[in-house]
């Protein structure tokens, strides 16, 4: 790529390390031969300074609050594009021509049904199971149903597995919701859009015709666009790591769902709305700001802060605007939105948040919209998983096609006991 190097001074002298240049963003010091050359490892828990792969899918500049998918800014995609088009873009690298988009949408719509036997899986869960628990289980179980798309060395089989995952996620998520409220599952209806179909499977009932509200459909689709990919975040890295061993694609995505569930990651949207509800009144905001700043209190402002963004998360801006639009169009008022606006205002003017560069992230306002649409908080992260599946499969495909990719196998700084002899139990 480049002949540039950086020099590392060690007790054995200077070691030149190749410097790799991406198309944009920080250069990367190539340490692949570092252990072989020095007998030393590098140490970076949480990967705060380490690039785990090369990727051409998504670019983030956290300092300037920029997010690009295949070069296109997220705000342009959120405003002008739609989820099917963004899915194609992430998977294939360029925006589709009309014919390509039509074919892609048609293909996805022809994979929306689940194997009928999968419906029986749901009955094994308690009715109060968290939808993410169901999603992990059912998506993992797809491995047992689609044996014709699991040869990961075959690009065509990888594409079919990717289409299946993108297509079936709305069905799986909607069924998780239906199961929790004791309503019958609805089969997909393929004359509807990807998002309209999901809304119908979620909120429709067999006894009535469900008319998709175009305003809700557009807001929901935009939420999917905003969550579609986010380069090497925890769940995507989990999918890549699981996939690096050659594991079954459906099992890899189930691993991603498990990781996404955590409150420091995708689970934050649920936690953020719960927090806003708990605050309840703008008068109580100072109390919660004080708690967030107290080192002895584990409380954090959910939906605030990000590993990469040290500026406003560009997705949060669109999300806030969408929240205002949806509430206005549905003629709803929600005191939670007032609390969110005021909390944001106070936090962004507080030295603690300014100094630590803590800004609202994508999850801060999404809960307000999803709540207005009618989703219970437990479903929020499942919706995130539905949308992020596109990013996961795009990143997984990219990894498998990369000839330089090896099995992911981090090293460690061992701090445990050194070698010692076994002592029989009676002598301890
Ligand atoms: N509220 C209060 N203080 C915070 C917050 C917050 N939300 N986030 C970070 N801080 C403080 C930390 O206490 C820490 O302070 P210190 O330096 O005095 O110890 C400092 O800011 C840096 O925080 P770290 O946890 O070291 O930063 P990291 O990059 O590891 O964490 C994370 C990022 C996990 C997102 C964090 O900001 C957080 O927990 N936020 C709340 C959860 C959330 O909204 N997650 C969603 C992320 S977006 C997504 O996954 C889609």
Automatic annotation (TrEMBL):
<dbReference type="InterPro" id="IPR002020">
    <property type="entry name" value="Citrate_synthase"/>
</dbReference>
<dbReference type="InterPro" id="IPR016143">
    <property type="entry name" value="Citrate_synth-like_sm_a-sub"/>
</dbReference>
<dbReference type="Pfam" id="PF00285">
    <property type="entry name" value="Citrate_synt"/>
</dbReference>
<keyword id="KW-0808">Transferase</keyword>
<dbReference type="InterPro" id="IPR036969">
    <property type="entry name" value="Citrate_synthase_sf"/>
</dbReference>
<dbReference type="InterPro" id="IPR010953">
    <property type="entry name" value="Citrate_synthase_typ-I"/>
</dbReference>
<dbReference type="GO" id="GO:0006099">
    <property type="term" value="P:tricarboxylic acid cycle"/>
</dbReference>
<keyword id="KW-0012">Acyltransferase</keyword>
<comment type="similarity">
    <text>Belongs to the citrate synthase family.</text>
</comment>
<dbReference type="GO" id="GO:0036440">
    <property type="term" value="F:citrate synthase activity"/>
</dbReference>
<dbReference type="InterPro" id="IPR016142">
    <property type="entry name" value="Citrate_synth-like_lrg_a-sub"/>
</dbReference>
<protein>
    <recommendedName>
        <fullName>Citrate synthase</fullName>
    </recommendedName>
</protein>
<feature type="active site">
    <location>
        <position position="306"/>
    </location>
</feature>
<dbReference type="InterPro" id="IPR024176">
    <property type="entry name" value="Citrate_synthase_bac-typ"/>
</dbReference>
<dbReference type="GO" id="GO:0005737">
    <property type="term" value="C:cytoplasm"/>
</dbReference>
<comment type="pathway">
    <text>Carbohydrate metabolism; tricarboxylic acid cycle; isocitrate from oxaloacetate: step 1/2.</text>
</comment>
<dbReference type="InterPro" id="IPR019810">
    <property type="entry name" value="Citrate_synthase_AS"/>
</dbReference>
<keyword id="KW-0816">Tricarboxylic acid cycle</keyword>
<feature type="active site">
    <location>
        <position position="363"/>
    </location>
</feature>
């Amino acid at each position: 790529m480049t002949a540039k190097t950086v020099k590392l001074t060690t007790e054995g002298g200077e070691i030149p390390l190749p410097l790799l240049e991406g198309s944009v963003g920080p250069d990367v010091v190539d340490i692949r031969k570092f252990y072989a050359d020095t007998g030393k490892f590098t140490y970076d828990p949480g990967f705060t300074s380490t690039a785990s792969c090369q990727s051409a899918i998504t670019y983030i500049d956290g300092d300037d609050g920029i997010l690009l998918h295949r070069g296109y800014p997220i705000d342009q995609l959120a405003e002008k594009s739609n989820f099917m088009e963004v899915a194609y873009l992430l998977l294939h690298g360029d925006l589709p021509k009309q014919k390509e988009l039509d074919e892609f949408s048609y293909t996805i719509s022809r994979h929306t049904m689940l194997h009928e036997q999968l419906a029986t899986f749901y009955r094994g869960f308690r009715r109060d199971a968290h939808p993410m628990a169901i999603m992990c289980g059912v998506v993992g179980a797809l491995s047992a149903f689609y044996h014709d798309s699991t040869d990961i060395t075959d690009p065509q089989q990888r594409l079919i597995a990717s289409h299946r995952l993108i297509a079936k996620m709305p069905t799986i998520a909607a069924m998780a919701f239906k199961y929790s409220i004791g309503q019958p599952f609805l089969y997909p209806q393929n004359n509807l859009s990807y998002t309209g179909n999901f809304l119908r499977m979620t909120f429709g009932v067999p006894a009535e015709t469900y008319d998709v509200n175009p305003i809700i459909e557009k807001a929901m689709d935009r939420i999917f666009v905003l969550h579609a990919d986010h380069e090497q975040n925890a769940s995507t890295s989990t999918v890549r790591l699981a996939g690096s061993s050659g594991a079954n694609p459906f099992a890899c995505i189930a691993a991603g769902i498990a990781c996404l569930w955590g409150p420091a990651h995708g689970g934050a949207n649920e936690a953020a709305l719960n927090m806003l509800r708990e605050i309840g009144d703008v008068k109580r905001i100072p109390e919660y700001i004080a708690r967030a700043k107290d080192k002895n209190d584990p409380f954090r402002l959910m939906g605030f802060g990000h590993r990469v963004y040290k500026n406003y998360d560009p997705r949060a801006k669109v999300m806030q605007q969408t929240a205002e639009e949806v509430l206005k169009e549905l003629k709803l008022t929600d005191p939670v939105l007032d609390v969110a606006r005021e909390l944001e205002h106070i936090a962004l003017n507080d030295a603690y948040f300014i100094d630590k560069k803590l800004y609202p992230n994508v999850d801060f306002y999404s809960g307000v919209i999803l709540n207005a649409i009618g989703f219970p908080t437990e479903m929020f992260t499942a919706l995130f998983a539905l949308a992020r599946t596109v990013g996961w499969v795009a990143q997984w495909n990219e990894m498998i096609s990369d000839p330089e990719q090896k099995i992911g196998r981090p090293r460690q700084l061992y701090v445990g006991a050194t070698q010692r002899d076994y002592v029989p139990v009676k002598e301890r």
